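Most newcomers find our protein records easier to grasp once they have seen one. Read left to right, the backbone structure tokens trace the chain's path through space. Nothing more is needed to start thinking about how sequence determines fold. An example says more than a description, so a record of this kind follows:
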Amino acid sequence: MNNFDPNILSGFRLLDIIDIFLVAIIIYYIYSLIKGTIAVNILIGIALFYGIYLVVKQMEMRLLTEIFGGFISVGSIALIVVFQQEIRRFLIHIGKNISLRRKKFFWSFLNTKKTAQMDNGEQIKPIIDACRSMSRSRTGALLVFSRYFDEEYYQSSGEYIDAPVSKRLLESIFFKNSPLHDGAVVIVDFRIMTASCVLPLSDSEDLPPQFGLRHRAAIGVTEVSEAIAVIVSEETGEISFTKDGNVNMNLSPEELEKILKEEL
């Protein structure tokens, strides 16, 4: 016997389909941002907490219902506090995609991308030469390239320099006996703004065990900002590039140069 009621779909509108589609996109973005991080465990804990609340409420356990209900009543504020890093990352991700599309349109309109890459080639050369030299000598280094200089974010944890990028200066900073070799160098518009910066470490649980503090700091800063980072491993001399929390490992100086020309 067919119990299907055709009137069920009578109130279904095109806007409802768009609504479901947009919610699916938001859920996908949220999942992609928290996948492999400690936020997943927190989300599972919140789901279990809410499930227990529904059970005790259904069983009419008044005292527990009041206690759990008190926490749930301030749930939105608690979620903002607990997931502040993920919310920040989500908003940055959206803004970054909009900025990237706008920039691509701008370059295609002016048709000057190749010219810009040629101009950046001379400025990128000392960075590549320094990375090549430090890779050969297995000198650990972490270079962060930011679009703007946030004094409160970077300068508070490092030494302010504000000097043009040069091969010798980068090698001097990361020389193992230098007082500034620990931490990151922040480069803005091909100027070394600060050295010995302390960066936020990534809390991702999917990182390989061989990743040290430099790699975790590079991943962490690119997760919460629009910065990109270059790492030279002290143990292996391997050069890596990080963007949006993703690591491209075992790069040659030529491959790094090509990437930086596109990114900068």
